[in-house]
Amino acid sequence: MALYDEYLREKVNKLPNNPGVYQYLDNSGVIIYIGKAKNLKNRVLSYLNKSNQSNKTKILVDKIADLQYIVVNTEQDALLLENNLIKKYKPRYNILLKDDKTYPWICIKKEPFPRVFITRRYVHDGSEYFGPYTSGKFAHILINLIKSLFKLRNCNLNLNQRTIYNHKFRVCLEYHIGNCLGPCIGKIQEEEYNDFIIQVRNILKGNLSLVIEVMSRKMNLYADNLQFEEANQMKEALEAVRNYQAKSTIVRTSINDTDVFSYIENEKYAYINYLRIVHGAVIQVHTIELEKKIEEDKDSLLSFAILEIRQLVNSNSKEIIVPFYPDVQLEGVQYVIPQKGDKKQLLELSERNVNYFRIDRERQRSLKKEDTSFNVLKTIKIELKLPVLPHRMECFDNSNIQGTNPVASCVVFIDGKPAKREYRRFHVKTVVGADDFASMEEIIYRRYNRVLNEGLELPDLIVIDGGKGQLHSAVNSLKKLGLYGKVPVLGLAKQMEEIYFPEDKEPYLLAKNSVALKTLMHIRDEAHRFGITFHRKLREKAQTKSIFSDIKGIGESSEIALLQEFKTINNIKTKSIEELAKVIGKKRAGIVYNYFRENE
Questions:
Q1: Strands, E, within 193-307: which ranges?
Q2: Half-sphere CA count of 562, side-chain side, radius 13 A
Q3: Which of 234, 249, 426, 578 has a CB 3.0–4.6 Å from the CB of 408, allowing a cystine?
């Protein structure tokens, strides 16, 4: 483990006990992980001292070559800095926010007679932005409602008192068809126009009760002044607002300006749903998916999600309903874990949403995986002219060096993916020396004789690592078993990646970017790797046995102890007497040490 190096150990021991953010770097100086801590020293030391780390965390720790850190004042500052740095550097072993697309905002432009429009660009020019809206459809519904109510301008003319007074502009088609009130020619005063903008702002904030109250007063005022056409227009607008309000999820008017977060996870992903409650109604819903790279505590993931989403939607709610407490307390915010009542129902509503989202994402991944696998198999079937889709492919490879320890391997791919539980190794039993052809004939016969006897599944394609000779040997065995012609078989030669079919005199050449060729090469390389690994283990075992049997005074228990400690013979050869003595005692250590020096 890299963190046990003296350099890093000393660096960790000098860490302060303050809140902050730490960064792990690999030996190339690349940041591979960023984390926050309320106590930097304790947190980083925990990576050294944990004995029950997951495999993913162990891989991270093994790659750490250096450490950097930043001290901050509070835990909340550490959370904010961690969030920003993760988004900037995208370290390999940090959680990955899967949903990083841009969302639409509704903008009230800072200008005379402000325009109200949808945009995906947030410009810091003093304009007001509401959202973002995770549903573009919902954002357009709001804009259409606002346009139908208030007849606001949508042109980008530079309106001001001077240009309007000098009649610099003429009304456009929007004015003539009743979609604009004509501020460009002074048909509406800026004060009255800004009253409409106030109502727009209230709608976008979810303050519909106030909007309804103001519109009701105006409708009655128009009626009292016998302005029946204007009163009827306001009545229709009022009905539209009430209809929009009725479609919102009403909770309880006593619950105002509250955020709700729910959390669900599996081994690989965490899902967090967000509801925004304003004046008793759910006005915003958002769900994110986090891909976990190493062991991550759920309270830490919830903190990350809360900060991320609240920044996204510009929420400053002082109350947050949660299923459990996050690991960072936000300043000025109260966390609530409801046990009953309306707030409990809100949390349950959020939990239903996040569960539906999880099910949908898993279904999408499953369909995508199935579609991809099906398309690959379909392409292989066409390119290799196979009778059926090759759902199950088996590949065979021989392995021997100078005729020693002859073995063979069989790897199995199902739907284009390695099925490692199905892999098999074989000791070649009937062949003496390095005879690849005879070895292949034996292995193919043994494999499929057993498949037939035990009623196991036959493959859709058999791949032989080799050219005409190995393929011919495999075909001989298939003929003896009555399988030739029932299961397609081919050979893949290494030199030019030629494909050989049993009945063809010339090899079949595919383009280098062929899906079928790439898949066959992948299967062949995996069979070779699997066989070589097995062969290497056998050679090492034989080598170990022959060496220790020659060392008088060293028994099996000493042999086992040395191999458990130092793993290989080469490692044992390099050790001093003192290092060997710690494992098998001084006397035996001297025997082993002297043997290797004398026989170097």
A1: 249-250, 258-265, 269-278, 281-291
A2: 29
A3: 426
Kindly report the backbone phi and psi dihedral angles of residue 329, in degrees, each rounded to the nearest multiple of 5, phi listed first: -90, 120
Q: Which residue has the tokens 């199935």?
A: 370
Name the nearest CA neighbour of 214 among 229, 203, 205, 227.
203
Could you give the CA distance from residue 530 to residue 524 in angstroms, rounded to a whole number?
Answer: 10
Q: How confident is the model at residue 537 (pLDDT cuts 50, 70, 90)?
A: low
Phi then psi dihedrals of residue 269, to 5 deg? -130, 155
The answer to whether 427 and 399 have CB atoms below 8 angstroms apart is: no
pLDDT higher than threshold 90 for residue 448: yes
The tens digit of pLDDT for each residue in 343-387 reads: 888 898 889 888 888 888 888 777 666 667 788 888 899 989 899
Contacts of 397 (CB under 8 A, 6+ apart): 408, 409, 465, 524, 527, 528, 530, 531
Give yes or no for a cis peptide into 132 (omega within 30° of 0).
Answer: yes
Q: In the structure, what pLDDT confidence band is assigned to residue 338 with cuts at 50, 70 and 90?
A: very high
Question: What is the chain's alpha carbon radius of gyration, rounded to the nearest angstrom?
Answer: 36
Output the pLDDT for position 253: 53
What mean pLDDT is predicted for residues 392-418? 80
Contacts of 80 (CB under 8 A, 6+ apart): 307
Residue type, 253: T
Q: Kindly list the distances between the CA atom of residue 548 and the CA atoms of 138, 539, 565, 597, in Å, as whole numbers in the listed order.
A: 77, 14, 16, 14
- Residue 313 sits at the vertex; the CA angle it makes with 204 and 112, to the nearest 5 degrees, is 45
CA 451 distance to own-chain centroid: 39
pLDDT band at 84 (very low <50, low <70, confident <90, very high): confident
CA 499/CA 520 separation, integer angstroms: 9
Task: Give Cα 126 to chain centroid, integer Å.
Answer: 36
pLDDT tens, position by position, 97-117: 765 556 788 899 999 899 999
pLDDT digits (tens, 9 = 90+) for 497-513: 889 999 888 888 888 88
Pull the structure tokens for residue 148. 């139908």
The length of the chain is 600
**Spatial separation of the C-alpha atoms in residues 252 and 345, rounded to whole Å:** 11
Chain position carrying tokens 């279904």: 363
Question: Is residue 89 classed exposed, middle or buried when 0-12, 13-18 and 19+ CB atoms within 10 A define those classes?
Answer: middle
CA 467, chain centre distance (Å): 41
37: alpha, beta or left? (left if phi > 0; alpha if psi -120 to 50): beta
Which residue has tokens 């009403």?
Answer: 250
**Region 453-479 average pLDDT:** 91
How far is the C-alpha of 249 from the C-alpha of 238, rounded, in Å? Answer: 19
Cα dihedral 80, 83, 89, 91, rounded to 10, equals 130
Residue 403 pLDDT exceeds 80: no
d(CA 238, CA 250): 18
Token representation of residue 221: 């005022």
Count of CB atoms situated within 10 Å of the CB of 530:
21
* Least trusted range by pLDDT, from 247-251, 336-340, 438-442, 497-501: 247-251
Q: Residue 406 belongs to what H/E stretch?
A: strand 404-414
